[in-house]
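We modelled the chain as a single entity of 348 amino acids. Its sequence is:
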Amino acid sequence: MFSVLRPFLFKLDPETTHDLAIKSLKFNYLPRKMFEVEDEQILNIELLGKNFPNPIGLAAGFDKSGEVYNSLLKFGFGFIEIGTVTPLKQFGNPKPRIFRLEDDSASINRLGFNNDGIEIIKNRIKSEKKKGVVGINIGPNKNTKDQKNDFCLGLKNFFDIADYITVNISSPNTEGLRDFHDQEKLEDLLLALNKIKSENKINIPLLLKISPDIKDNQISEIADTAIINDISGIILTNTTNSNKDKLISDFKKEEGGLSGEPLQQISTNMIKKFYKQLNGKIPIIGVGGVNSGKSAYEKIIAGASLLQLYTGLVYKGPSIVKNIKKELIQILKVEGLNNIKDAIGKNL
């Protein structure tokens, strides 16, 4: 069905297409059985104190305001990440702000954390019980005077309803946000978040989402800071401001973060570097250009325990997860591996 609809959908503005997708998903009409595959138990993995039916997750950015996470789980995702959620509702940057680079199988966005805000999203999740693993990605409002406090508000409001919380310090579309990659500033933020966990006697997994545009000498600093401050997982990576020179599309000069196939190798290389540095102490969630079983497997053998995608869903439609799972299972069988966890970091 998607292959029939795609030419029509791609004539529409990308954000209009996205809004149509959210509206249609609210009907929740597709049966889960459509997206099941044989031998999926091979992909089952225990991580972050949770059972993931498979390692393929949906990255933050699609269901920004927690409107359709249960419908998305029906597509066969192992988990869904909502957000980025900010304390106050905000519109984000002026439109147009999403650009579809079809010739490059990529997207550029400068959305700027458009979402309904903590209060509305919190009530929405409470009213619709989660039917799978659902994480919440938190960030600061554009005009906040205290970004650290905005992160703290996110944790305080969601620790009792999320399966994990992602601290997003890596979007290129919020001024000053990537400054948190600085070791001293990151240490200060994580200390504040861990204080909230301690005061509330909670043990919710905290994940850290990293930019692909950091320098190599920052990798050891971030890894060490994450280990010392009990971070439960590192998401590698967000969108990139680089690697646009070789793009074909006319939209390549647009400002914003680049995602999709041009990010594929950048994020995989980053996974390899962090995997060596972390030495098994913190698991990695790999993101960037995941659109097939092959690209998924490359990230897993580079050191990723879980994966996320978004742009691949835009280009290949709802069947992408089913196809990736099928291909991954076939690869594991050929490699003689009994479970996906046996492939993690295999080529290192």
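As a brief sanity check on the tokenised model: The first strand starts at residue 45 and ends at 47. The chain has eleven helices and 13 strands.
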